[in-house]
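re the bet — no i am not wrong, look at it urself. input seq straight from the record:
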Amino acid sequence: MIEAASERLWDLLPRDATLTKTISGFEFTEGPVFSRRGYLLFSDVGRQRIHKWERGKLTTYREKSNEANGLTFDHQGRLLACEGGARRVTRTEKDGSITVLASEGLQGPNDLVY
């Protein structure tokens, strides 16, 4: 049974909908972003990983993510990440290398929008 904090939820879901937990075991998840290519990325902040969920399978997209939380994609499909632990915003290039986009003066960036 789903309990709704707002009746507006039922504009999105049927009242008899059921929820299914697909995966668990994370420390603290953040920053979900869905790719136009059909997969979901999200961070497990405490474990320093960015995960990829695609077609029912979980893989690690990036290790040592510096407590990445907020995620988005740029117009070329490259991942942008707020790395709270490193106090910076980065871009993951197509070859997997990391480019620092901003760092000076940041105090734990959390979210971003492209």
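see?? The mean pLDDT is 94. told u. also The two ends are 36 Å apart (CA to CA). so pay up
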